[in-house]
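Dear colleague,

Following up on yesterday's call, I've attached the two folding results inline so they're easy to grep. Please treat them as preliminary; we haven't cross-checked anything against experimental data yet. The first protein's sequence and structure tokens come first.
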Amino acid sequence: MNLTPVKTQLLSDKNRPMSFASVVEELIDNAGDAGATEIELTIKPNTLVILDNGEGVKDFEAMLTHGRHEFTGVEKVGRYGVGLKQAGARLWGIMVITSVRDHSKRSVKIDWEEWLQSNSWEMDNPSVEPAPGEASWTRITFKNTEKGRIPSGQNLDVALRNVSFLYAPAVELGIKISVKRLVDKVETAQKFTGWSWPKLTETIDVMLNVEGKKARLRAGVVPPHEPNLRSGLHYTYLHRTILEGSSVGCGEYSNGRIFGVVTLLGGEWCLTTNKDNIDEDLEELSAAVFAQMEPLLLKAEAQSQHVDLSLLENSLSSQLTQMFSHGKEQRDPGTSKGTHSHNDPPATQGKKASKIQAGTGKKRGPKEQGTGITLDLSKSFDLPDVTQVEYEQRRVSLNNAHPWVRWLLKQKPEIKELAILVLAAAAIVDVEPRTLYPVERGEKFRFTEKMGLHLKEWIGKKHLNQGKE
């Protein structure tokens, strides 16, 4: 049997959905695996050049054969022998590889379209010339690339910013990575940087042992109102990030206020083909990370819930204030004294939502309203009361100790916000919530048609004491 691949394999690689960032990552990985401590990218229209000071190319045939990889016993990111070939075919055009090793300079050129049209997988041997006393290096040049394969402007900015973040581990290891490019027709240079850690609280730094493999976990909680642009856990191996902003190791908790790095140590870890995941022992690693992360995740969740609750309180307080400033018939929370609490059903139902201002015989109009109404969703008081109104303070509270309220706060925003609004308004005017259904637009509390529909479908089918955790 002859198992030599057909030339359409090149077209498959050319049309593979591989981003420019992924192309650059493959090239940097190869340089890092070659022991490079300095890597320089040059990007121009339809041209990409990568130069490194690694050990040089030992075997051009192995480097260019699909699926062939040279195992050296040294820890490396690459292991499947497909990265460079896929990257070159993706860019298409002409690829030139020049490398100095053992005092010799070798060079090979591939015209991808020309090679596709040939009937053979054979290729000319590299040209060789002496390079006495010259240190090892490798330069790979892609020129006359397929139109659109090398981005420019903002698209290039985004690609380089993401690639720079992925190689923060390389910078921490002392590898210098720089990019030369044209900006407004002027060549500029920029350097990749290491991790930019946000401000953290409740930090941990622990070693993990997973099926005999080792890893280091560093993480913490980002305080409220502090930016966390790269949230989650970032898994790294050698010089690159494998999983970016991952929820692996976070269970069912949100990682929105978490920043952490999991560094895979030693050469035993196995990665997927494109180095974007861990191929073996991922579940075991996730469990080990979660065991250490859970206390932080609980604190981050409580912190986020507190912030979310404050935002919800502010939004609904504003809506309540607006309701009682424009309703045709309403009970003014500022004209009654004392505190009123009730559960389901209220002591009075169907009670008119109007209040005559004492001593005037007139209803208090919108211009005579006092300060805004405050909604408190964090207060706890005796069961079975669900709501409590403090008229002099113009405050209405939902009982955070009531299981139905706790259950309600976990619901989808559109249901949660509407239900809380109705309960608070019902408590203020002392009526059973279902009597607040809108009859006509603008009547009573000016509910929209959508709000009324939600009420009929959801609130009307439930009682306050039928909730659950």
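Below is the second protein, in the same order (sequence, then structure):
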Amino acid sequence: MGDAWDAVRTFLLRAARLLERRLFAAVHEVGRREAVAAALRGCQNPDGGFGHGLEPDIRAAESQPVAVEVALRILAAAGARDAGLEKGAVPFLAGVAAEAGAGGAVPLALPSIERAPRAEHWGGWAYQPGLNPTAGLVGLLRELDVRDPWVEAAAAACWDELGRSGPPADVHPFAEVLHLCASEPDQERVRQLLPALSVGAPRLRLFQWDAGGDGLTPLHLAATPGSRWWPLFPEPVLASHLDRLATAQEADGGWPIAWAAPGPGRGAGMGWDGDPAGAHDPRRLRQADDHRRTLSLGGAGAAQSRPARPNSRLALPPMTRASSSAARPSARTVATGSSSARSKGRSEPSRTRSDPAQATRRRSCSRSWVMVS
């Protein structure tokens, strides 16, 4: 574990942006939380939104809702609070929502992304308002204790959409809904939705139930054993993904990606030098090691006899693979885009695995911290 952890740290120090280096120091070492907020200010625009490549797939300087979500997730991960960053972004989001005319919902991106280099999958599909990223933005702003009429209007729009259509069929808006549920004051409403979330999760598009495929994994939806969503997954499934995470680390300390980032070279310079949507989070590497040592697991099969840990907040059994195979994505499709933070691959459009040269690129460490917890 020591060598693997040292490799992560060295990789971040060598390849990550100042923002992610400060984030790592604040979370895992003795860095100051205020330093994380100071680094984020360089990406904030006068309108309160964020841009300037904070979302590494989008290099436009103009503010984008997805970049706001990245900023809020980083603040939450660092435990930092800065009213100018958090509350300052709300007027931008409210303005975007008013223009979209969708009852408070916002799109991931605006057409201004086309004025600068961007990953090839970012286009018109991202201009439509919806649960992704609105639900995640509501959850993060509530987590950061931001109160504003737009936050409540956006939350209402999300619940209206869930009432009409049920949980989303794509893993990325699904992850955003989990953020919304965690922040919802009316937990009875959440409890009523949980059975549908539990049944639907194994069938999600771009979701990797079995370790070895492509897409987001249970570890993206339940980042640590303390997550309220951890008990939704069987222990053997979690163990197999933890094993894969530990063994997939490359010699330089990073993890590979499988799509073309904007710009030449490995991961477009400093933009994608980590791993999608949180798999590079050093907490996960420690989690994988602790999981095997504490439970004496040598692989996923060793967990078969271990019952799922209880969680009094969720009166639900773990999800099972039963009846989910028909809707599973092909092993050759990968999550496109970035998660929120991440990692933001959507069902529009899926892509096939990239060539080996692309697969050696690294994703930005900003995505190392963008996850559901």
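For the second protein, one point worth flagging: The chain has one domain: 2-369.

Best wishes,
A.L.
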